[in-house]
Amino acid sequence: MKDMEKRRIVIKVGSSTITHASGLLNLRKLDELARVLSDLRNAGHEVLLVSSGAIAAGRGKMHRERPQTLEEKQALAAIGQCELMYIYDKMFSQYSCSVAQLLITKEVIDDDVLRRNVRGTIETLLAYRSIPIINENDSVATDEIVYGDNDTLSAITARLISADLLILLSDVEGLYERNPADDPAAKKLDVVHEISEEIMGMAGDSGSELGTGGMITKLQAGRIATDAGCDMVIASGDDPRILYDILEGRPCGTLFLAKEGTR
Fold first, then answer.
1. CA–CA gap between residue 154 and residue 51 (Å, rounded)
2. Is 52 annotated as a binding residue?
3. Are 254 and 234 in contact (CB under 8 A)?
4. Does residue 209 register a pLDDT over 60?
5. Ranked by mean pLDDT, which of 33-42, 58-67, 99-108, 142-151 comes out on top?
6. What pTM does this model have?
7. Most buried pick, 41, 68, 143, 150, via CB within 10 A?
8. Residue 7 forms beta bridges with which residues?
9. Is 206 annotated as a binding residue?
10. Residue 134 near residue 48 (C-beta atoms within 8 A)
11. Which residues share a beta bridge with 231?
12. What pairing do the DSSP bridges indicate for beta strands 165-170 and 231-236?
């Protein structure tokens, strides 16, 4: 079955994917992302975007170096989230697509009542044909700021709404058997049927300068998603049009198949 038949999709973009090295937002890439996601919505998909980038955007806007203290991270997140959503709203509006912001903390996910409320809100937004844009509420969170650059949150979201497919767009092209930076001959895995301990052992990086999520957190997210019956793809976010290739079943990135019996 081609992934184009997968109707409900969660797409996660990391900080390093949507910002320049300076920390400022990459407007060209954000515009292309908005165009592609709007087009997928027009094609009949239910699309959710989990977007990092608040701290990076705040850092760029305030001309600050990478924050070291929790207070600095929270302040820059508060500034950057406004900037991030302003840009998203402007970009998506060009394609007659409405977006909605949801800021979530671990406490919301852990609480049965709050979790049901979030699910209900998302379901209603999708019925409105809006694209929910989800981020961790870094301005009030503590441990979540080092939660994995939203990798885990995107998997939890996919599980929460029974998504068909989770796509992690990042600065890596997929899962390699060894670190390609150390071994250029390392081969990329096209399909992973089970995220075993052997597969987990292939992860070893600690993430990018702008983000906090490395391959380990992506594989942990993959376990959450695949255990819930959701396929997952890790692919490069350099060009958002790769989403078309993924959904049309072309080989790109690494596909992690949902656990048998969970679909």
1. 9
2. yes
3. yes
4. no
5. 33-42
6. 0.91
7. 150
8. none
9. no
10. yes
11. 165
12. parallel
211 is in an annotated binding site: no
**Is 216 annotated in some ligand binding site?**
yes
What pLDDT digit, counting tens, does each position of 184-207 carry? 888 999 999 999 999 998 886 545
Question: What's the full length of the chain, in residues?
Answer: 263
d(CA 76, CA 55): 5
State the Cα–Cα distance between residues 54 and 73, nearest whole angstrom: 9
Report the C-alpha gap between 182 and 214 in whole angstroms.
16
Does the annotation place 207 within a ligand binding site? Answer: no
Where do the structural domains in the chain lie, given as residue ranges? 3-256
Radius of gyration of the chain (CA): 17
Mean pLDDT of 35-59: 94
On whether the 3-256 domain is CATH 3.40.190.10, my answer is no
190 is in an annotated binding site: no
212 is in an annotated binding site: yes
Dihedral in degrees, nearest 10, Cα atoms 151, 203, 249, 37: 20
By the 8 A CB rule, do 198 and 43 touch?
no
Q: How confident is the model at residue 4 (pLDDT cuts 50, 70, 90)?
A: low
